[in-house]
Amino acid sequence: MRVFVILPAAGLGTRMAAGQASAAPKQFLELAGTPILIHTLRAFADVPAIAGIYVAVRPNEVERVKAHVAEHGFAGRVTVVEGGDSRQASVANALAVLPCEADDIVLVHDAVRPLIDAATIQRTIQAVEKHHAAIVGLPAVDTIKQVERTADGALITSTIPREYIVQAQTPQGFRCGLLRRAFAEAAADGFVGTDEASVVERAGAAVAVVPGSAANFKITQPGDLELAEFYLARRAKA
Ligand code: C5P
């Protein structure tokens, strides 16, 4: 059994660019002097069980990312592929060239979650070995409301007990055969989900949850870079 990683990194980062002079996609912004994508790559490259990492980027960024990958010494283990118009399309493009057997494990991780740690990656792999599908999730601490959007703003329709809620993070891991089947079914039905688990859930598979952490957050909006720098500095001191 081998473990492969897909890093979708073809987003435009429009929420991050809002109100900023620079429109650089967030995965290429620097964190402590190194692009976010390289931090994320390093986190997975440091786990010996991982056989190969596939990064999906926008077509016009393929050459730049290949150069970054070589410059940071990852050339042998990292393959750069073209992403698509949605996160799901980017993952599908990487999956199409992944040399995995049905029983191998595929972990999908947001390129913009650079603070993932080796222990959580290992726990996810172990959970996939046992359950065939597992994602990292953070138990909700806030009370969660379901709302209806109206012209006057949001109106609460119900309160969802928070013990039933986890916030989906990544990595999200699956047996390769299961992920391929789920993606094929989604493509046939025109279903587009915001994560891989939703695609696998609708294919009828049970998906386990591995505890995540607040540090494994998705760099999304202005201010998040400072927060990531804080977590990085704290980790360096530990
Ligand atoms: O936009 P969102 O926060 O959902 O992005 C999650 C991850 O999916 C990011 O790493 C982003 O680069 C990636 N993505 C992608 N292809 C797209 C859109 C998003 O690889 N078309």
TrEMBL record:
Protein name per the record: 2-C-methyl-D-erythritol 4-phosphate cytidylyltransferase
PANTHER family: 2-C-METHYL-D-ERYTHRITOL 4-PHOSPHATE CYTIDYLYLTRANSFERASE, CHLOROPLASTIC
GO MF entries: 2-C-methyl-D-erythritol 4-phosphate cytidylyltransferase activity
Function: Catalyzes the formation of 4-diphosphocytidyl-2-C-methyl-D-erythritol from CTP and 2-C-methyl-D-erythritol 4-phosphate (MEP).
Organism: Silvibacterium dinghuense
Recorded metabolic or biological pathway in which this protein acts: Isoprenoid biosynthesis; isopentenyl diphosphate biosynthesis via DXP pathway; isopentenyl diphosphate from 1-deoxy-D-xylulose 5-phosphate: step 2/6
Gene designation: ispD
Enzyme Commission designation: 2.7.7.60
BP GO annotations: isopentenyl diphosphate biosynthetic process, methylerythritol 4-phosphate pathway
Taxonomy, superkingdom: Bacteria
Classification via SUPFAM superfamilies: Nucleotide-diphospho-sugar transferases
Pfam family, one: IspD
Recorded catalytic activity of this chain's protein: 2-C-methyl-D-erythritol 4-phosphate + CTP + H(+) = 4-CDP-2-C-methyl-D-erythritol + diphosphate
Site residues, Transition state stabilizer: R15, K26
Annotated site residue numbers, Positions MEP for the nucleophilic attack: R162, K218
Family: Belongs to the IspD/TarI cytidylyltransferase family. IspD subfamily.
